[in-house]
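Hi C.,

You asked whether I'd gotten around to modeling the 276-residue construct. I have! Everything is below, sequence then structure, no commentary in between.
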Amino acid sequence: MSKGSVRIAATFERLQAQGRKALIPYVTAGDPYADVTPALMRALAEGGADVIELGVPFSDPMADGPVIQQAAERALSRGIGMPQVLEMVREFRRGDDATPVVLMGYANPVERYGVERFVADAQAAGVDGVLIVDYPPEECEAFAALLQSAGMDPIFLLAPTSTEARMAHVGRIASGYVYYVSLKGVTGAGHLDTGAVAAMVPRIRAHVSVPVGVGFGIRDAASARAVGEVADAVVIGSRLVQLLQERPKDEVAAAGRQFMAEIRAALDGVAQGAHA
């Protein structure tokens, strides 16, 4: 059995024992201000985040909608690249050794940095999982194994268009959790169809043994609660990024903490009998 992340496994085990759902916010490293990210990450954890997805800025984020694209552009304009992202994780770890951190991004920055160097430096910084949007599972079994041997989880996306064969392949190599993209298209777009999500999650569970998180289109307490009824984790990104970009620097952390607390309260209201 491959190792993967101890922090992520422990987090989901604890939540399952409590009958609670994981809350996973996404923020872009270096946005809305270059030096606010570690404090913001701590505030999100204090507000009730269970895992934090930290976006690695990239110039061509094809799966992301305008809100996260613009966040990446702002971060890149401030000189935020992979070395700075890893330093942010190191700084976060100085104050929080429990909350899992997942880096989310694209293949280009990882390959430019050097794959083996990236895995070694991410492990040393305290990263728990890596989600590379444009690495299909069929093409990155070696990368997945490298991550797991370093105590990190390869996290994979599944979509409404994913075939049974793709789900089965992800089920064989994924660890930590899988991330179901509940909408066709880009982040932050469209209307969340919770009925379609409720129909899809059991199909995914037939192929994967790790928890299933759902993201894209979750904007508030009500949509988070609806998704929490059927999924193991709720991922919320565009709405949070949008909320924070409107804040002055000294209010960013508090705004993130308050938004997390609202979503956390809604999720904890999910019936204990729902699948956990």
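If it helps when you're writing up: Residues 271-276 have pLDDT under 50 and may be disordered.

Thanks,
B.
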